[in-house]
Amino acid sequence: MKRFFILALSAAILAISVPSNACTNLIIGKKASADGSVICTYNCDGFGFASSLAYHRPGKHEPGEMIALRGFFPGSETHYIPQAPYTYAVVGLMNEKQVSIVETTWTGRRELRNREGWLDYFTLMDLALQRSASAREAIAVMNFLVNEYGYNETGESFAICDKDEAWIMELIGKGEGRKGAVWVARRLPDDCITAYANSSRIQQFPQAKKIDKKLGFYVTPDGETMYSADCISFAREMGYFTGADKDFSFREAYGPLDFSAIRYCEARVWSFFRHHYNTEVMDSYLPFLNGDLSQTDHLPLWIKPDAPLTYRDVQNDMRDHYEGTALDMTADLSAGPWASPYRNQPVNFKSSDGTDMFRERPIGCQQSGMTMVCRMRSWLPDALGGITYFNLDDATMVAYVPVYCGINRIPDAFRAENNSVTEFSFDSAFWMNNWVANMVYPRWSAMIGDLQDAQKEMEDYYEADQAEVEQKAANMTAGELTDFLTGKTFAYTDKMMNRWDKLAKFLIVKHNDQIMRPSKDGEIVRGRHTSPAYSPVFIDAVKAQTGSRYVKPADK
Description:
By secondary structure, this protein is of the alpha+beta class. The protein is built from 13 helices and 27 strands. It is 29% helix and 20% strand. The strands form eight sheets. Strands 13-14-15-16-20-19-18 form a seven-stranded antiparallel sheet, with helices on one face. A hairpin with a 7-residue loop joins β15 and β16 (181-187). α11 runs antiparallel to α12 (478-510).
């Protein structure tokens, strides 16, 4: 008799409304990180949704057991596929073996979408995490799944990482009536960093002479590049490529860049690189970001950073708005009176005279449904070594909470049932974070310092507590460790929720009626209030636009 199991709708997260279609991933090799950890990140962006945290229990499965693929999108048809003999526990986007998979969509050639395929990218990630003990195994599993059941999405990039290796994989379907997908995957050099932000980035790549018959795809002799059996031949068949194999570019064949992909997507990669590499060298790419391809048509696929990155560095990289660069979103009139890096209008819009215009699209943005920094550490037991620093909403506005991959249930504040986008709840991390964020957005320069103080307080506490956690965990049995780490994750989440409740109430009192009451160490103190000044750029623009109207005459 067949038994049926329901597969979670997404890769260990559940989007309550519209799924992400504009996300950012940062990837750090183990020799590029300060402590030897492999790191990958995910801002899951798309207006109007929250992405809660989910948990899949591990389990052995009998022959004949089936799982139902419900699909991520409303109205998706249900399909049944055989269950794997064993499935690993998954917390968020990291499994019990410290395998993590994050994604970003680049769409590419729209005619290659096969809506009859059974797998969307979230379900593909979810299945791979449940069935893979390493990043390499996850790539092989994903290849098998799309060939067996079909892929129904557009172009997608995945960062697929474990405690030893980081891989980047680009994948796109083959159009209506064709199962499978074409893809290429490259191992990130251990001493390098890279990023993805909604554009295809792999161009030419090392090639193999023969297909690995066991795996069914190409693997180069050094084992550091893999690609689908028809990656190049399919491009020829479709007329996307006509040159010699050695000149084949995956990006040019399947996801060629236009100005939007360069400025809204590659610019985010550029800004991340700029944080960790010679700024003069990185600024030489500004003409490219402005659409001038006469000198170069791409950024480096990866770079070796000037200094190793800590996971705290990477958390702050996820909050970037191009500050201090030629694209700084706080530095011109569009930042408003409070020098805000946030914009309400669409990315593309028109002026009153019909001129086509655009705004910048940074890594940190208000439409994030959740944010995470996955940290995989080979020198610790898997349950302890894998940490997802997680929260719902905008990375700039939240404190990253440590969630261990060895837990066996999800804190209430991160659960789907407590994070409805249509009903405010004090039990919801999404709404507690949005409560604070939506006070700060319109009055950025006046209020962001108070938020950052609370953010740093929380993240400093979590970091300082890790040494004691690791010491206590050293002699625990597996069961004791699971209970201990679950308790710690719950306590960390509760601490964040309580601190954000205090922060929200503090902000409304301190900044009531657009003044600033004096404060110290997060508490209101007695004293005279002040009136925060508008941004100098905004003041000068008002003077230029209004002439002498607000110019105070000299006293006689």
